[in-house]
Amino acid sequence: MTERHRAIYERYDDRCGYCGHHLDTPRADGKSGRRCVDHIVPDRTDGRNSPKNLMPSCWNCNSIKHARPLDFLRRYRGLQKAGLAEIVSLAQYDELVNVGVPMPPLPIYEFHFEGRAP
Ligand SMILES: [Zn+2]
After folding, report:
1. How far is the CA of 60 from the centre of ligand 1 (A)?
2. pLDDT: which is higher, 72 or 43
3. Continuous H helices in 1-118
């Protein structure tokens, strides 16, 4: 682990900046202790690798967000919170709302990093 990555992980006490999961604690998906450094804005050209654009992330959040905007992960976690993620994808949820199917609103998911300033 580089010194630079070390500093990024320490920003949130070795917790995922998105979900708050401790990065050394095994989780049910079996991807224990897998740390990632996520690019918050994936296609940012000005300072893509600047510390402000880097977030310590667990493997789970990183694989869900992938190269998508941050709002995708927030809405996906909301879909999970509503118990709908096993039934529909986010795209399907949006499509159902667009054609007028009454769907429960997605609860707001607050990221771990929003709870405290780095
Ligand atoms: Zn996470």
Report:
1. 6
2. 72
3. 3-10, 59-65, 70-81, 90-98, 112-115
For residue 32, how far is the Cα from the chain centroid?
A: 17
Q: What's the whole-model pTM score?
A: 0.85
Structural domain harbouring 46: 3-113
Residue 118 forms part of a structural domain: no
Give Cα 33 to chain centroid, integer Å: 16
The 10s digit of each residue's pLDDT in 46-103 is: 777 888 899 999 999 999 998 899 999 999 999 999 999 999 999 999 999 999 999 9
Ligand 1 center from residue 93 Cα (angstroms) = 23
Amino acid residing at 115: G
- CA 102 to ligand 1 centroid distance, Å: 30
Which residues are 4's β-sheet partners? none
Q: Please state the domain count of the chain.
A: 1
